[in-house]
């Protein structure tokens, strides 16, 4: 048996080099797996050594950032054996040639070594590892260690529970170690390719991805609101590091914030921009799909959302959340009792959620007091003042590629009409359509006033 010569002890350079985040972390993990395979092959076929070098240690991860894959590894807090199992399952997808050494034949029996495990892929022809492959790399002939490591393959293990590995499914009349090591395609898409907008593949999933083409310069907030967002931003940037360093005895994972204020004041846009800035998905919960008239179904629907969010580090955004998280009622019927049980369940599930959860509402007072105590922050989105309204009008009308900036002052509009940004956006849409209808590049003041009148009429108001 020929083997690659390696130098011990193994020491992987772990300094962050500034290459694309996930690519650099994966490169480090694959180098480590290569060293582990070389170590085991060399030690196994050289025979027992009196004082063998230590098994290669996993490379150190960056403290924060460095992409979704690094964040996942930090969040899972895997030991070296679990981490090797995960990267071994990923390897056929990203560097299959690394495992070709396991096709080496045992010349005595003219077949591959049984202890290598694995199978040849039916189409791509590469080596697909099994549990036996992992046991060989990690334990060799050490029977005690092999038996101890079998616990890694129990369906209750977090790697299987969080659907990061495919459930082990060996044939009933074959050894359990013949079960293949595989990862769902969603793991490749999300953690390696960064396709965060992919919605889970079942039609009744009660959440949709929020995205925006806008940026922070399009969001106009009062100074008070911007200041209130600072703690939430700090959590998105440093929360994972805080939990990892201080431990969960000191701080529970997760962060809950209430965005409240009149409609159209920027709550949804703020959530979208936060996700954009900190490179995570944000999903709006569809309450019509979440809330069911059948007892127990609401909890099942909610569990789908929390399970996916935990796996993929989503921000969860409950719009009009007071309809779901409202104050509990006095029990006058079985329906009231069930409603209160649902509220109690939601309270507990929110408290245990390790993600950022944003609840949006028009009114803070609509919430159950028990919910209020569980929020880490409250962010008030008031109606914009004159200065903010002028900025919103200017953002909407002065930067168009189709129309010329207005030749008249926008200050009278900002002064006279106390309306939110969402309404201003609707007016800008209306006047743009009117200009196109006239085949003109000019915005007219009378169209702006008519647009405002139409928006106020929706609320039963007049100029």
Name a few traits of the molecule.
463 residues; alpha/beta; Rossmann fold; Helicase, Ruva Protein, domain 3; 3 domains; two-stranded antiparallel sheet; 18 helices; 10 strands; disordered N terminus
Structure description:
44% of the residues lie in helices and 8% in strands. By secondary structure, it is an alpha/beta fold. The chain folds into three domains: 21-190, no CATH class; 199-380, 3-Layer(aba) Sandwich (Rossmann fold); 386-458, Orthogonal Bundle (Helicase, Ruva Protein, domain 3). The strands form three sheets. It has a six-stranded mixed β-sheet, sandwiched between helices. Strands 1-2 form a two-stranded antiparallel ribbon. α1 (21-46) packs across α2 and α4 packs across α5. The termini are far apart.
Secondary-structure blueprint of this entry?
Blueprint: H1 21-46, H2 67-76, H3 80-94, E1 105-106, E2 111-112, E3 119-120, E4 127-128, H4 131-139, H5 143-149, H6 158-161, H7 185-192, E5 207-209, H8 223-228, H9 230-246, E6 255-260, H10 267-277, E7 282-285, H11 287-290, H12 297-312, E8 315-318, H13 334-352, E9 356-361, H14 369-372, E10 377-380, H15 386-397, H16 411-416, H17 421-437, H18 445-458
Parallel strand pairs: 6-9, 6-10, 7-8, 8-9
Antiparallel strand pairs: 1-2, 3-4, 5-7
Helix pairs in contact: 1-2, 1-4, 4-5, 12-13, 15-17, 17-18
């Amino acid at each position: 048996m020929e083997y690659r010569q390696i130098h011990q002890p193994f020491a992987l350079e772990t300094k962050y080099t500034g290459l694309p985040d996930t690519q650099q972390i994966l490169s480090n993990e694959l180098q480590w797996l290569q060293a582990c395979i070389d170590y085991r092959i060399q030690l196994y076929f050289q025979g027992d050594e009196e004082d063998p070098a230590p098994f290669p240690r996993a490379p150190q991860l960056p403290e924060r950032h460095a992409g979704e894959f690094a964040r996942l590894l930090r969040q899972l807090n895997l030991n070296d054996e679990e981490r090797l199992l995960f990267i071994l399952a990923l390897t056929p997808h990203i560097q299959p040639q690394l495992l070709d050494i396991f096709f080496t034949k045992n010349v005595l029996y003219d077949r591959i070594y049984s202890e290598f495990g694995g199978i040849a892929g039916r189409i791509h022809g590469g080596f697909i590892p099994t549990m036996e492959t992992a046991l060989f790399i990690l334990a060799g002939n050490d029977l005690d260690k092999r038996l101890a490591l079998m616990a890694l393959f129990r369906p209750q293990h977090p790697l299987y529970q969080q659907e990061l590995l495919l459930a082990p499914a060996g044939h009933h009349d074959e050894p359990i170690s013949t079960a293949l090591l595989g990862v769902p395609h969603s793991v490749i898409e999300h953690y390696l390719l960064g396709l965060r907008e992919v919605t889970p593949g079942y039609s009744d999933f009660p959440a949709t991805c929020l995205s925006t083409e806008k940026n922070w310069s399009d969001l106009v907030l009062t100074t008070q609101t911007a200041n209130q967002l600072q703690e939430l931003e700090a959590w998105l940037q440093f929360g994972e590091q805080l939990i990892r360093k201080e431990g969960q005895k000191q701080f529970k994972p997760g962060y809950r914030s209430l965005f409240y204020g009149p409609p159209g004041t920027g709550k949804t846009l703020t959530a979208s921009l936060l996700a954009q800035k900190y490179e995570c998905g944000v999903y709006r919960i569809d309450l019509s799909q979440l809330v069911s008239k059948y007892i127990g179904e609401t909890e099942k629907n909610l569990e789908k959302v929390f399970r996916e969010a935990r796996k993929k580090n989503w921000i969860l955004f409950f719009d009009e959340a007071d309809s779901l998280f409202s104050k509990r009622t006095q029990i006058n019927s079985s329906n009231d009792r069930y409603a209160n049980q649902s509220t109690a369940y939601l309270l507990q599930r929110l408290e245990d959620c390790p993600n950022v959860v944003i609840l949006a509402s028009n009114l803070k007072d609509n919430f159950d007091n028990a919910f209020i105590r569980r929020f880490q922050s409250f962010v008030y989105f008031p109606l914009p003042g004159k200065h903010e309204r002028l900025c919103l009008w200017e953002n909407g009308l002065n930067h168009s590629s189709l129309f010329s900036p207005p030749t008249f002052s926008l200050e009278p509009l900002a002064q006279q009409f106390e309306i939110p940004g969402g309404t201003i956006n609707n007016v800008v849409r209306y006047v743009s359509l009117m200009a196109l209808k006239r085949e003109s590049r000019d915005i007219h003041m009378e169209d702006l006033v008519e647009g405002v009148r139409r928006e106020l009429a929706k609320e039963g108001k007049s100029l």
